[in-house]
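Memo to structure team: turn this sequence into structure tokens by end of day. - J.P.
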Amino acid sequence: MQIPEPPDYDIDIQSIIEVYYLAARGRNYTEGTPLPLSVRNVTEVIEAHPIAICRSLLDPIIFAIDDLVLAEQRKPKSDG
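Reply from structure team:
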């Protein structure tokens, strides 16, 4: 079996992942339930860690990732 080549490193994708990670750490909760990320959560990260991706592209990507993560967390857990 031949080992596939690893994907190329992409600084923009890495930057988006880091922004999401840092914004999610600052996420608000209500009664132990995570709330969706807000524009303010992303803005706070970008102010501290500027990146070269414009907000009109960054915000929809961050919110789409967050929607996927929150949907996964809301799935009922099986006992099996």
